[in-house]
Specification:
The protein contains three helices and five strands, in the order H-E-E-E-H-E-H-E. With 134 residues, it is α/β, with parallel strands linked by helices. Strand 4, helix 3 and strand 5 form a beta-alpha-beta unit. The longest helix has 21 residues. The mean pLDDT is 78.
């Protein structure tokens, strides 16, 4: 008579093998969709008169770094230059949205100066960028 420790196992555990097949299938799907190329066609050309004029980005980003330097999108500017450039952009796009990004180490006065410029220009779509809590 066999004891409880000497049972014969007739079943094979296929769960790890199924997991492996699903991972391989997922890799195969990703690789085949990444390697699919579009069909090459000869595209028509438009006349230069009908091409739209490229404008500044719709949302303007103003960044104040930890040393108080101000950047409009990626260009370093002073407060006077910021006011004139934003005035030109507002003339082209009346409802221009602006995002103000201030470094956490920056002086509060630098951010207030930028907000004061935005108030003088009448820009009211202002977002203050923050980092989500972790």
């Amino acid at each position: 008579m066999a004891s409880a420790d000497e049972k014969n196992f007739d079943d094979i555990n296929v769960t790890p093998m199924v997991d492996l097949y699903l991972v391989l299938l997922l890799i195969f799907i990703i690789m085949t969709t990444a390697s699919v190329q579009g069909v090459k066609v000869n595209l028509p050309s438009a006349s230069k008169a009908s091409s739209p004029k490229l404008e500044a980005p719709k949302t303007q980003a103003i960044t104040i770094d930890s040393e108080g330097r101000i950047r409009l999108n990626t260009l370093p500017v002073t407060l006077a230059e910021l006011e004139s450039k934003l005035g030109q952009i507002k003339a082209a796009i009346p409802e221009v949205p602006v995002v103000v990004r201030g470094d956490r180490q920056s002086q509060y006065q630098g951010i207030m100066d930028v907000l004061d410029v935005l108030g003088r220009l009448g820009i009211n779509q202002i977002g203050l960028a923050t980092q989500p809590p972790q």
